[in-house]
Every structure is written in structure tokens, then in C-alpha cells.
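Re: the request from the purification team.
They wanted to know what the chain is likely to look like in 3D before they choose a buffer screen. I agreed to run a prediction and write the result into the notebook, where they can find it.
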Amino acid sequence: MNEGDQKSPLFISKMDQNKVNELLQEALSENESLFLIDLSFLANNKIKVVVDGDSGVPLSECVRISRNIEHNLDRESEDFSLEVTTPDISESLKVKRQYNKNITRTLKVKTETEEFEGVLSEVTNETISLHWKTREPKPIGKGKHTVEKTVTIPYKDIKEAKVKIIF
């Protein structure tokens, strides 16, 4: 078989991508605590939707979103697979709203030049604040003492932020 004879992977048309996005937004609008993390159109007509919620996402909501999309697309015109999921705990935070739901949790945040690990204590429109305790040498005398540290990091400087899983 020549290279020219190989079939390229099928892709969902641009019109159908817009329809999927509309159906997804419609489903999300029914529960204001939910928000979109990612919508991907992958090879072989696979649609992947990643949603999160201010208080987590019950399985029933993933099913409801999936049905809203699936039942309003025509499988006769284009065959597709659909996956509606929540973010993997090991993935980096991608949307500002995810920071709000993780206040009081420990985050590991990387910037271009530094790495911080602390409890997320504040979230604004432009920044996040982390605080932690550390042992440092005493300014006078021998030994160490515990000091509290705080850092405020603008979103634009965050290269990666992950929730630290503590058992």
C-alpha cells in the first residue's frame, strides 16, 4: 500500500465542534457550580470533556452532561466517542476557579525561577497567596526557630500549580 492510499484519521467537522460546544455550555448552565476545564476533539472522532465543580463533580453530573451532548448529535452523520470526566488529581490546576475550590489545601507552585509549597490562603482576580512554616537559623545565637512565611504569586507567573496529596 502506498502512503497516499492510507486513510487519515476522521475528525469531527467544525460545525459539529460548535454544536458540541453549544450543547456543553447548555448542560453546564444547568448547574452553576460546574465549570469547563477542557474540551478536546481528538483523532478518530473522540470528544473529551473535562469539567470541575466548586464542590466537586458527582458522577450523575458527568452522566447528565454526556447525555445532553450525545442525545443531541446525529450518530448517523458522524460516529464519535464521548468521554466526560473530572480533572485527574495529579494534573496541574488550569482554571482560576480551581484555585478557589482548593483554598486551605497545600499546593506546590512552580514559577520561572522558584518553587513554593504552602497552604493556599487567598485567591484574588490577579494573584494567589501561600503560607507555610519553616525552621530557620536564629538571627542571634545558636539554633533554629520556626517562622511563618507568605508569598503572593501573580497568575501570569505560575508555570505549574498542583494540589499536594497528603495521606
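For the purification team: Confidence is low (pLDDT under 50) at residues 1-9.
Please add any questions underneath this entry.
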